[in-house]
Amino acid sequence: MTSTDPRTQQDLRYGDPAAPPTDWAVARRALAEAELYWLSTVRPDGRPHVTPLVAVLLDGALHLCTGSHERKARNLTQNREVVLTTGSNSWASGLDLVVEGTAEQVTDNARLRRIADAYEQKYGSDWRFEVGDGAFRSSGESEALVFAVPLRTVFGFGKDPHSQTRWRF
User: Fold this and answer.
1) Cα(58)–Cα(44) distance, rounded to whole angstroms?
2) Which domain of life does the protein's organism represent (predicted)?
3) Rounded Cα distance, 130 and 128, in Å
4) Which helix (H) or strand (E) segment is 41 a member of?
5) What phi and psi, each to the nearest 5 degrees, are found at residue 21?
6) In percent, how much of the chain has pLDDT > 90?
7) What is the 3-state secondary structure (H, E, C) of 44-76?
8) C-alpha–C-alpha distance, residues 96 and 157, integer Å
9) I need a labelling partner for 69 at 20 to 30 A (CA). Which of 39, 122, 138, 145 fits?
10) Secondary structure of residue 44 in the 3-state scheme
11) Residue pLDDT, tens place only, 4-35
12) Are the C-beta atoms of residues 14 and 159 closer than 8 Å to each other?
């Protein structure tokens, strides 16, 4: 995680004015423990592309991987600005999180090894990756590119009571 706490701002226009801002430690834990995230990228022609994926929070960034031939990888070669979302589909409980950032491809094998270990620790042996030549590798499949999305701005939408909190890094 980053060495400094983010600046926290609550927008009282959205939600219960008596609701306190969500504590960053609560939001960070929810971001780290989420099983599924939705990645939004932009196609070269400007149309949006959204896809579910798994990711890990490590060193102040969400890390994701994708095959080099997949739409999201191709989109990221043209436009690195992304949004990752996670939360619940409930209106009255939970915390929804929206992460805005710039995806950076990770190619350093030592860093990739740490990210691969984090995937396996979080998701189990089905998500075991070998590391080589600046990418993830798995038996019988092509390489997977790895991207880090350093936390720049995160929005939290509390639901019990409703609130909106923004963290800037």
Assistant:
1) 29
2) Bacteria
3) 7
4) strand 37-42
5) -65, 150
6) 91
7) CCCCEEEEEECCEEECCEEEEEEECCCHHHHHH
8) 5
9) 122
10) coil
11) 789 999 999 998 989 999 999 999 999 999 99
12) no
